[in-house]
């Protein structure tokens, strides 16, 4: 069970030690404080509580337990964070006995292949490849840092090497490194410069191969399989994550060379999509790092339908999508190879167009032509209609003017479009951000305290009256957290579910509520205080509601009776720390 793993890992690891690897912590009373690793600050507002095994930042609101910390700090998913912490704690994951362990050995084989290719690039067989890379203006130190390799034209160079190291045919096939022919196995990549593709945590998943001469596809990639899914990864993202987080944006290019060139040019926040159709999985990856995504494709590609749809997928996921247009149809590799390329690219980035305006710009000619105007208008409406009204609002005037109509007319069209159900997927509720950049509305502290106490004390959790608790909470988010805790078999069970769903709000709320309860004594005592405060708040709301009815002359007999009861509750002596 994953929840057992979570529990055992938490028993073995101390949050102060885990966070201490990243943050210099100082003891302050029962807690530790330090400079928050999630936002810039000069005075510490980041607190770690050894007794609760949680952290919380008063500056940016980030908070949670060791899993949250590792996921946020390293930009990992729950499963990956679980692996990292399990190996630190010396715990063998229960699920790892099946599928996971196999993957690990496939990864090992991939690493063996990677060093084989890299050695060949340096050796006598790599001469043609080195000449090619020289022509592409990539100096030798970049071959090392980007782990470039060379797969010679021979049919069995890699397979021979793997075989000598004890790799089984099945394993090499599963890793996608070889193919099976009539005469046996042969290498997939031949006569190609090799680009290793790693996931966000740096694990080697796939290779891309660039043909340097002869016939064949210019680029080929490892096949989709157990290890690699193109839809879920971005090339160089593991190297881009720090810079992306620091700058708040990710630059997305199409190919290997463009991505490497931008990294060399000082734009370390760059990754490559290796294809045109961006996916929701990729959008979620980017959202972990940055709020803005600047897409920089070849100019012809940026207009293609598939590319356009992909950009809307990112925008819909809550990213601020900008489309970068490079001067006179150059690709990033060309541009950055110019002496003034860095400046030119920087300027192009600054003037990148918001996706919606880019779309309108692309359809400019169609919009001016009487025959095509209708089609272009529909297309833009369907793009706008797929986004939340909040995203669209700032651009309505400019879009309307490009369409030759008034903004209120465009609003009307858009409303009709939405009503007709053009927006098939109902607009998802605004997703909470995984790494809040500013201070967000984190809700009422006392309601957070309810969640914290349900979390902390198993007796309270098992005996609390669910209906009563939920009726005291006004914020739907806390209701959801409390309901999950109240209905779960164990708290670890809910926790691993939150982690695997990528929900960060619950643990932030719990950490924050825990802070609030500090000084209220043991959990049961704090529980009484918290419930009392919320019951009074509820009574006060009811009191005001009935009083309003009375003043309008709409109150009935029952209202009058209830009014007296509520007034009594409010007059009874309040407990300590009331708000
Ligand atoms: Zn912070």
UniProtKB/TrEMBL annotation:
Zinc finger (CHC2-type): 36-60
Keywords: DNA replication, DNA-binding, DNA-directed RNA polymerase, Magnesium, Metal-binding, Nucleotidyltransferase, Primosome, Transcription, Transferase, Zinc, Zinc-finger
Protein family membership: Belongs to the DnaG primase family.
Top-level taxonomic group: Bacteria
InterPro entries assigned: DNA_primase_core_N_sf, DNA_primase_DnaG, DNA_primase_Znf_CHC2, DnaG_bac, DNAG_N, DnaG_primase, TOPRIM_DnaG_bac, TOPRIM_dom
Gene transcribed to yield this protein: dnaG
Compositional bias segments (type: Basic and acidic residues): 430-441
Organism: Aminivibrio pyruvatiphilus
Cofactor note: Binds 1 zinc ion per monomer.
Reactions the enzyme catalyzes: ssDNA + n NTP = ssDNA/pppN(pN)n-1 hybrid + (n-1) diphosphate
Region of interest (Disordered), residue spans: 418-444
Domain Toprim, residue spans: 248-329
Annotated Pfam families: DNAG_N, Toprim_2, Zn_ribbon_DnaG
Known partners and oligomeric status: Monomer. Interacts with DnaB.
Protein name, as recorded: DNA primase
EC number: 2.7.7.101
Cofactor(s) required, per the database record: Zn(2+)
One Gene Ontology term of the molecular function aspect: DNA-directed RNA polymerase activity
Free-text function comment from the UniProt entry: RNA polymerase that catalyzes the synthesis of short RNA molecules used as primers for DNA polymerase during DNA replication.
GO cellular component, as recorded: cytoplasm; DNA-directed RNA polymerase complex; primosome complex
Parts forming coiled coils: none
